[in-house]
Amino acid sequence: FHGLKYAGLVSHGGVRRSKISPVLQHCTLLWAYGISWSAPVGSAHDDPVLSKPDIYGESSDEISPIYSLWAIWALKYFLSVEESEDNELQFLDMVPWYSGTSADLFKTLFDLLVSVTVFLGRFDMRMMQATMNDSHDGARQEDFLYDHFSEKKEFWFDFMADTCDGGNSSYSVARLLAQPSLDARMNDDLIPLPRGNLLLIGGDLAYPNPSTENYEKRFFYPFEEALQPPSWYNKKHLAVNKPELPIGFFDLRQYDGPQSFVIPGNHDWFDGLQTFMRHICQKSWLGGWFMPQKKSYFALQLPKGWWVFGLDVALHNDIDSFQFKFFSELIRDKVKESDSVIVMTHAPNWILDSYWNNENDETGKNVSHLICDYLNGRCKLRIAGDLHHYMRHSRVQSENPAMVQHLLVNGCGGAFLHPTHVFGNLIKAYNSTYETKAAYPSFQDSRKIALDNILLFRKENWQFDFIGGSIYFILTFSMFPLCKLDHILQDDTISGHTNNFFSAVWDAFMYMVGYHSLYEWYQTVENEYIPDPMVRARIEQWTFGLYPTCIKYLMSAFDVPEVMVVTRTNICKNGMASLSRGSAILYYASVFPYFWVLSTPVASLVFGMYLYICINWLHLHFDEAFSSLRNPDYKSFTRLHIKEDGNLEVFTLAVDKVPKEWNVDSAWNNETEQQHQFSHQRFHPSKWSAILQDPIETVKIVDSFVINKRDEAEMSK
């Protein structure tokens, strides 16, 4: 029994505490049977595999003492290995977008080309989802419509997007989402906000491409560490008949744990949505969040007449005809005139159209048609991700009818930060003007962060040297060599002394790397040890002239500065045509290392300055200028609350600084796990806590507002 307790198989009450492999169970039972190391440990009837014939070749019912000692050692060893693996973080770094050596980025480019040329306009997974559905009534398709939340008196739910870039940032947000309640600071007050019953994720689940490895390591792993899936759940299991409810539940309305619904983003579409379908629509758990979702788009009927439309806009930022048919018929048959709708898409076309001056030729025309002509004022809020910051634009009162009241983008779920200051304070959409009410980070902070392109570009993107140095050399190699530069130092002006000084330095440098310097050194050594010139002449004669020639060229190959100087002198005297192809290749190969050392820091500095000027002065390249920084900070998500009176409260919670060092949370470790207990029922559901500045302690509210459902008026706190 004490052996079983040591292995964690049972507690004092006899309840199984942790999962352990059969081999370790076998060793533990063997240890528990033992009386002493010198006496027979048990009987072969108890465990015939470990009987003496297996070792000594003799017949006996006794288990070998040697085997028992081995079992004890194996038990301790494997337990220590298992414990070390469980207590080791496996968070990945932020994606190096400017790396010239990343296979992931080349695969991303290839997948994007394939998606655009093959899938887009030729094969659409959304069309297949619709045609494979059994029902032909768009408003009653069970695979797309979920109404199990609709009878609750009040309802909390969360929204996040663009997660799973770096592990630290993704886990920080997931840890906040997993807590039973958060005390978020707003001004000088602490506002208690309970965990959402529903988690909406707005796409881009893994960077840079939607591979199985990226989904598992960058998306699922941080969420599983923040809120563990049930102990009986097999991660390899494919859910073919969703929803696969936990044991003891027969209807989605009975299950009171957190659930998650997800729409794909552009990065999820790079492989034609294949990985998204396998991991979202054919899996039942995202950590401790239950996933009943079957398709890539859906409609959720929430309490008090609220709805969420999760749209899949694929790579061209619009819904297809089958999707339009489903939502238009749903509006006709299910959505009442007094209801309110939240439309969720991946891309915030209202901001991007304004930024690219596409207001007269807006993207997402089918989405706009659905909102303006079918919802006709019932869309109170649009939410999206894609841009990795938080911004809210609210409608300015006018005579035009209000198609949408608020436009909200929050893509701070874990990806690198995007700027806010490059986007206009006023934008036009749906024949109305919208004004910026909140931005995170602030415009001022956003400008300051852009300065890091000058200071930190090479530090964050040192692999860019492979690209930058090569490109610069290709652009300038035809200029080598530059001859007749001595006239620069021939000057009789007042600055002559200074020029003479630099001339002396130059001469010293040329002497150091001068003509045949390495071979001349060898000749001095040779004269010292073989002083007789006749002997050297005979050696040259006996070797048919190979002796000095081979040594000369061999040392020239190792003496790179000499190769450069000799070849340069030859080129300047006789022209480039005088060199053979091999000599020219040798010359450029000699120049390249020196050019690399001198040019790569300059290349990174020039490129960083270019990005800084573009982003802060010209408001261009917002994606390129901030992806270079790989900034994991300024993370946020939005928590929404449908009150009993039907009004919608909206809070955006944020942390300025993302921790980089974590320890196993002692509160999580000490909390007793009961049999069949779900992780969301724990007071401390997350495994890791930050060593310094834990997000739970630093979380704050950066924006809050209320949508009053009764008279459609907005009240700002």
Would you summarize the structure shown here?
Helix content is 39%, strand content 15%.
What's the structural blueprint in terms of helices and strands?
Blueprint: H1 2-7, H2 22-33, H3 65-86, H4 103-119, H5 125-132, E1 145-146, E2 155-160, H6 167-178, E3 181-186, E4 189-194, E5 198-201, H7 212-226, E6 259-262, H8 274-279, E7 285-286, E8 289-290, E9 298-301, E10 306-310, H9 321-333, E11 340-344, H10 349-355, H11 365-375, E12 379-384, E13 390-395, E14 404-410, E15 426-429, E16 432-440, H12 443-450, H13 452-460, H14 465-476, H15 496-512, H16 517-529, H17 533-542, H18 546-558, H19 560-574, H20 581-618, H21 622-627, E17 635-642, E18 648-655, E19 662-664, H22 666-670, E20 688-690, H23 695-698, E21 700-707, E22 714-716
Parallel strand pairs: 1-9, 2-5, 5-6, 10-11, 11-12, 12-14
Antiparallel strand pairs: 2-17, 3-4, 7-8, 9-10, 13-14, 13-16, 15-16, 17-18, 18-21, 19-20, 21-22
Task: List key phrases describing it.
Calcineurin-like_PHP; disordered N terminus; nine-stranded mixed β-sheet; 39% helix; membrane; single chain; alpha/beta
Can you describe what's shown?
This is Calcineurin-like phosphoesterase domain-containing protein. One of its GO terms (molecular function) is hydrolase activity. By secondary structure, the protein is an alpha/beta fold. Helix content is 39%, strand content 15%. It has 23 helices and 22 strands. The protein has a nine-stranded mixed sheet with strand order 1-9-10-11-12-14-13-16-15, with helices on one face. Strand 13 (390-395) and strand 14 form a beta hairpin. Helix 2 (22-33) crosses helix 3 (65-86), helix 9 packs parallel to helix 11 and helix 14 packs across helix 20. The longest helix has 38 residues, at 581-618. The chain starts with a helix and ends with a strand.
